[in-house]
Amino acid sequence: MESTLQKPISAPVKVGGTHSKGLLVGYWVTTALFCLQMGFTAYAQLKLPQVAQMFTHLGFPSYFREELSWAKFLGVAVLLAPAPARLKEWAYAGFAITLVSALIAHFALGDAAQVWLWAAGTGVLWALSYFFWLAVQRTRQYAR
Q1: pTM higher than 0.85 for the full model?
Q2: What residues have CB less than 8 Å from 112, skipping those under 6 apart?
Q3: Which phi and psi (to 5°) does residue 10 adopt?
Q4: pLDDT at 142
Q5: What is the spatial distance between Cα 48 and Cα 45, in angstroms, rounded to a whole number?
Q6: What distance in Å separates the CA atoms of residue 12 and residue 55, rounded to the nearest whole number?
């Protein structure tokens, strides 16, 4: 009986073909938009008083707002710069925890949709970026 561990689950994507180029373009477009969004929210958390008030409304201390902002900047740098795959995985995980936590905090307080839709929309960008990143990693794995 032949082992299934050595066979890929799905057919490999032709490396260098138009399909892999499309994945790469999709990755960079969604990742750039996601990183712009996260960078903007990090800046807003540090500089805009109304965003600081929202953190107070959610029950978070001021130091957490500042700490979260710098962590977001660091995560954006990891996603945009050449970095080991493991480090990028951790950045994606950190962003997922941040976005889910933001949604939970808003839902727990009964905030209106216009307040939590920003986090939900950013979550969609996160999911697209992560999906494309995984697909690009898969094509690189098959190229080896």
Answers
A1: no
A2: none
A3: -120, 165
A4: 72
A5: 6
A6: 46
Is residue 41 within 8 Å of 122, Cβ to Cβ? Answer: yes
Place of tokens 């938009």: 33
- Nearby residues of 103 by Cβ (< 8 Å), 6 or more positions away: 116, 119, 120, 123
Name the amino acid, one letter, at 65.
Answer: R
Residue 17 token pair: 């073909």
Whole-number Å distance between alpha carbons of 67 and 76? 14
- At 101, phi and psi to the nearest 5? -65, -40
pLDDT over 90 at 143, yes or no: no
The answer to whether the Cα torsion of 96, 98, 99, 101 is positive or negative is positive
Residue 12 pLDDT more than 50?
no
Q: What is the pLDDT of residues 28-81, one digit of tens each?
A: 999 999 999 999 999 999 999 999 999 998 889 989 999 999 999 999 999 999
Q: How many CA atoms lie within 13 A of 6 on its CB side?
A: 3
Residue 73: the pLDDT is: 98
Tokens, residue 71: 């962590």
And the tokens for 99? 């976005």
Angle at 121 between CA 105 and CA 132, to 5 degrees: 120
